[in-house]
Write a sequence for this structure.
């Protein structure tokens, strides 16, 4: 692992140098502001910002012309550390730094602390929050579009622009749209399939079929069959590639085929491979929506994304908005994974508690 320190006049410049030298994968380990006294007697003090950044492997990017180092002797400070040692030290370093110190060294103004703190309390990733504020401070003077707006309004507008939403389903004439919900057990897939079936079959009068891809538990289909009968929507159970392909064929006259899957834990990548094989040989395009509960933590969400990455999910569908306490991780998720939101669910009632995803809703959840 490569560890390096970077010095600059302010946080934004230091971060820029980290990016130039180590690339976008660099991990920010610590930031601190260093005060020095060029003229002690006159009581004169200046400060600069030091960022310690790490990279698991050697950088592969070609950096642009490097900027002139502020203090060259201090800049070239690097060392190798074993992984295990590193993991023990990192939380310690983090805990030693007060949040407000970091905010100040990030160039935040006194009046911005409350808003910055609010974002952090909502779970917005600290580095994202710092970047948002430096963008806010640099853009505001430059463009007239923010005139007369409060900082909260500007910030929420910027954040809203970073959130992509892509629902409802785009149905095509002549062939069924196949949508599969994948994700960990308990995230709300089966309930959401029932809600979606009701939306399209009952409210929009579309021809809908439900397929339960029952790879693990025999009997997972019962819950759906009850809903299917109520809505007059056929519910099928399919196991394995051939069976799935046949079932899709059988319902080729439908407008929409919703596929429920019986997910395993977020650790099991073999399961995703199996699903990918089944979808690939289905004879049609399967649009996959990763179903995640908003009550899960950032780290669990990220791990789940890597477990299902083999499926290259087209959208993310967040459930349990009614149970969420903080919503910053919706923003973190969108920025990190660039996966558009399709639908949100906010309650257990079928079919009412589902809505098409909208970025304004995420912003209200974070700010109101
Ligand atoms: N509060 C709340 N509970 C939900 C929501 N969606 C699903 N659930 C509940 O979460 C639990 C697991 O749902 P289920 O659809 O069986 O998850 P699956 O394992 O992914 O199929 C059930 O008790 C559902 O009623 C939601 O939006 N809000
Ligand atoms: Mg289920």
């Amino acid at each position: 692992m490569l560890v390096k320190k970077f010095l600059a006049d302010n946080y934004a410049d230091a971060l820029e140098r980290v990016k130039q030298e180590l690339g976008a994968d660099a991990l920010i380990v610590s930031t601190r502001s260093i005060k020095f006294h060029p003229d002690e007697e006159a009581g004169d003090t200046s400060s600069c910002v030091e960022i310690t950044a790490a990279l698991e492997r050697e950088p592969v990017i070609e950096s642009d012309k490097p900027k002139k180092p502020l203090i060259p002797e201090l800049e070239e400070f690097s060392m190798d550390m074993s992984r295990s040692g590193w993991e023990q030290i990192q939380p310690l370093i983090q805990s030693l730094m007060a949040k407000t110190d970091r905010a100040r060294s990030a160039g935040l103004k006194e009046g911005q602390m409350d808003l910055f703190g609010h974002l952090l309390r909502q779970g917005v990733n600290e580095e994202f929050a710092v970047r948002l504020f430096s963008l806010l401070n640099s853009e505001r003077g430059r463009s007239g579009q923010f005139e007369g707006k409060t900082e909260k309004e500007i910030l929420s507008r910027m954040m809203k622009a970073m959130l992509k939403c892509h629902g409802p389903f785009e149905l095509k004439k002549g062939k069924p749209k196949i949508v599969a919900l994948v994700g960990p057990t308990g995230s709300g897939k089966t309930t959401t399939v029932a809600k979606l079936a009701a939306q399209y079959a009952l409210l929009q009068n579309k021809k809908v079929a439900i397929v339960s891809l029952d790879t693990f538990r025999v009997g997972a289909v019962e819950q759906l069959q009850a809903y299917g009968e109520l809505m007059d929507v056929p519910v099928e159970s399919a196991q394995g590639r051939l069976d799935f392909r046949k079932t899709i064929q059988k319902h080729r006259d439908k407008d929409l085929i919703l596929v429920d899957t019986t997910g395993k834990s977020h650790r099991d990548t073999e399961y995703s491979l199996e699903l990918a094989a089944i979808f690939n040989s289905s004879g049609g395009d399967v649009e996959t929506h990763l179903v995640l509960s908003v009550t899960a933590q950032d780290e669990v969400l990220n791990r789940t994304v890597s477990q299902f990455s083999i499926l290259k999910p087209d959208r993310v569908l967040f459930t349990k908005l009614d149970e969420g306490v903080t919503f910053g991780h919706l923003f973190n998720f969108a920025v990190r994974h660039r996966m558009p939101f399709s639908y949100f669910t906010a309650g257990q009632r079928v079919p009412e508690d589902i809505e098409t995803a909208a970025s304004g809703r995420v912003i209200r959840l974070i700010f109101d």
Observations:
- Residues 38-42, 60-86, 89-98 have pLDDT under 50 and may be disordered.
